[in-house]
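Q: How would the C-alpha cells look for this protein?
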Amino acid sequence: MPGRCVRRHFSQLIEFERGLIIGVKTAGWSTLRVTRQVDRSECAIRTCWEQWARDGTHVRRTGSGASRKTTRREDRRIVRQALVDHTMTRSTIQSDVGVPVVPQTISRRLAQANLQSKRPVRVLPLTPKHRRFRLQWCHARATWNATD
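A: Here is the predicted structure in C-alpha cell form.
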C-alpha cells in the first residue's frame, strides 16, 4: 500500500544485518546511528551488540521457543487426514490424531503444508459468454438518461 510505513522493527535480524551491526559498532558508531542505518529498533541493536560482547558471536541461539508437541509422523498424519477429507474440522483431526494438542497446532501444521482454509466463493465466476452479454447490455444502455 502506498504511503504505509513498513514495520521491520519487529521481525528477526538476518545474519547479514547482525554482522553489519557488529562491524559498525566495532568501528565506534553510536547505537542511534546504527539504528538509522539498519532501520531496526534500538533494542534489537543493543541486544545484538550485548550478545556479541557476552558470547563473542552474533549467531542466533538454537533451541529457543516452545518445544514441538507433535512428531513428524503425527504431522504427516494431520496433513493426510486433511487431504483425504477436506471437510474435516480441526477438532475432528485433533481427536483422530490422538495427541493432546490445541486446534491452533493443527492449523499451524496444515499451514506449514500449504493447506490453509479457503473462503467460499461469494459469486459465481463469469464465463466469456457472460462477459460478452454484459458488455453488450452496457453498450446498449450507455447513452440512456435518467428518464430512460
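DSSP finds seven helices and no strands in the chain.

The longest helix spans residues 42-55.

Upvote if useful.
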